[in-house]
Amino acid sequence: MAASNWTTPHPSTFILLGIPGLEEAHVWISIPFVSVYILSVVGNCLLLAVIKSEPILHEPMYLFLAMLAFADLVICTTTVPKTLCIFWFRDQAIHIDACLTQVFLVHSVATMESGFMLAMAFDRYVAICNPLRHSDILTHQAIAKMGLVVVLRGMIVLGPYPFLLKQLPYCTTNVISHTYCEFMVLVKLSCVDTAGLRTYGLLVAFLTAGLDFILIILSYILILRAVFHLPSKEARTKSLSTCSSHVFIMMTSYTPAFFSFFSHRFGHVAPHVHILIANVYLLFPPMMNPIIYGVRTPGIRQRLLHILGLKRA
Question: Is 146:117 a contact under the CB 8 Å cutoff?
């Protein structure tokens, strides 16, 4: 139903516009989208295959990385196919249940990704600051429990989002100026006071990704303090190199995430810029994570080359 003949505050479908102002360039914009999506899917599937098939990689860091890779696959597959339908076929309608499912998956899986990165930081902290007890603390059973806690946290904390959004009246329009359904976009469409819902969204963001980021920074402060107390330069260099891949992953994930979050709530950014940044936040980390670990980890790199037939076993 178009905005011009709007009759119901509880629509059964929404209309996703894609990137307003760049409609004529949608076909061209789809090229990097589909390229990044293919690289993300292929890269993360290869990463999962390598970690599963190589016993030497059944260590805490790589098991957490496998969880992160699976989450990356889910989050980009949740949004990109519908985005490409908008770009290629102008298929802009999305049923409200599908829209709310997108909201839940995007936010809950993003929260899970943040939790997995915190778990990886904890693994590096134990490995460097308490190496003799690393295998005793991070057993396979402990890793499974940590992964389960991260998944349950994302599902429970973000679970209310679809139900809260479905209760809101959308009195003026059902048109969403975005490529996918996002929590704050739907909140802004509502014609009632949503101050409580906005506060809840801020609280959830702080208690999940915000708190994770603070704890990750704290863990690296403790790691750096331990590293600089090591006796030799070689030992310090080796210890720091084991953390470098995780630091790169953090930078690629949190930088666009924070920019998107704060610009949505407090900034005045052009709509098409914000939408592009929001998509970078969802698509760039899943593409980069396998590349970063594939390039910087000899075990993963050699096994990947063997799978691709570029190097003899």
Answer: no
User: Is residue 293 within 8 Å of residue 65, measured between CB atoms?
Assistant: yes
Map residue 14 onto helix, strand or coil. Answer: strand
Asked if 258 and 161 touch (Cβ cutoff 8 Å), the reply is no
Q: Say if residue 230 is exposed, middle or buried (CB neighbours under 10 Å; 0-12, 13-18, 19+).
A: middle
Please check the confidence at residue 4 and state whether its pLDDT lies above 70. Answer: no
Q: Mean of the pLDDT values across residues 281-309?
A: 81
Residues forming beta bridges with residue 16, ordered by sequence position: 176
Nearest-10 crossing angle of helices 271-296, 26-53 = 30
In whole angstroms, what is the distance from residue 163 CA to residue 10 CA? 13
* Residue-wise pLDDT tens digits, 186-214: 998 998 889 999 899 989 999 999 999 99
pTM: 0.91
